[in-house]
Amino acid sequence: MNPPQIKVVVADDHEVVRSGFAGLLGTQPDFLVVGTAADGAEAVRVCRAQAPDVVLMDVRMPVLDGIEATRQLTAAVAGRVQPRVLILTTFDLDQYVYDAIRAGASGFLLKDVTAEGLFDAVRIIAKGDGLLAPTVTRRLISQFARQPAGPAAGAAGPILAAPSRATGVTGCPAVGTLTARETEVLRLVAEGLSNPEIAARLTVSEETIKTHVSRMLAKLHLRDRTQAVVAAYESGLVVPGVHDRSSVRDPSRP
């Protein structure tokens, strides 16, 4: 029996881009494009009707931009499953991308991504992992973590509730609920290590690391690894500039 297909909605105000991504995704047997949208408001309507697993979301769209559409789609509502949002952007250091992640996006890709990169990205996001474009380095995340919520971020604010930058981790009740091992796993996730790499570092099984990651995300009320990376910076657990590795899962890495 074949596994269920990943349902996808593509939102972009440029028809060529929208139809191009939809056409590419349609070539893969494990994807099902259930709708497209030319603006953020239409994206919200289509997603409410089709309940996709993943949304490819442009940022700059008319009527309603991709950031506000993302915020509406990822808002916790009883009885409604939130799709995972993968932001599509032309600029790898676009301020809007910071706000989009704060609004609940699971990551973003540049629009010049290869077909295989796109396929891998959708699969990664659908599994619940966070993802950043391969060209995005720790510099982006460290800059993001130090920035206050921009005007577009509205009430979303920082990823963690009321983190204390002055007192670091101990001043953040959410991070304080983690066990010592979960805190260590969070730090390693923020350093860019994959689950197999963390398992090797800590000399435990990959399944054990998956369990720690799941519990860590649940305790911090985070959706995925992208938000976990930001949380680690905002809490003071990780100091920007100390490590050189990419912060979040790169689709080219196992």
Describe the structure.
This protein is α/β, with parallel strands linked by helices and 254 residues long. The protein folds into two domains: 6-132, 3-Layer(aba) Sandwich (Rossmann fold); 144-234, Response regulator (Rossmann fold, 3-Layer(aba) Sandwich), CATH 3.40.50.2300. It is 43% helix and 12% strand. It contains eleven helices and six strands. Strands 2-1-3-4-5-6 form a six-stranded parallel beta sheet, with helices on both faces. Helix 6 packs across helix 11 (225-234), helix 8 (180-190) crosses helix 10 and helix 9 packs across helix 10. The longest helix is centred in the last third of the chain and has 15 residues, at 206-220. It starts with 5 loop residues before the first strand and ends in a 20-residue tail after the last helix.
Task: Provide the helix percentage.
Answer: 40-55%
Name of the CATH class of the largest domain: Alpha Beta
- Helical stretch count? 11
CATH homologous superfamily of the largest domain? Answer: Response regulator
Q: Segments where pLDDT lies below 50 for 5+ residues?
A: 134-138, 149-172, 242-254
**Chain oligomer state:** single chain
**Rg computed from alpha carbons, rounded to a whole number of angstroms:** 18 Å
Report the structural category: alpha/beta
Give a short account of the largest sheet.
6 strands, parallel
Taking all residues together, what is the mean pLDDT?
77
The order of strands across the largest sheet is 2-1-3-4-5-6
Looking at the structure, the CATH topology of the largest domain is Rossmann fold
Q: How many runs of DSSP E, i.e. beta strands?
A: 6
Termini separation (Å)?
Answer: 26 Å
Shape: globular
Q: Which CATH architecture of the largest domain would you pick?
A: 3-Layer(aba) Sandwich
Beta content: 5-15%
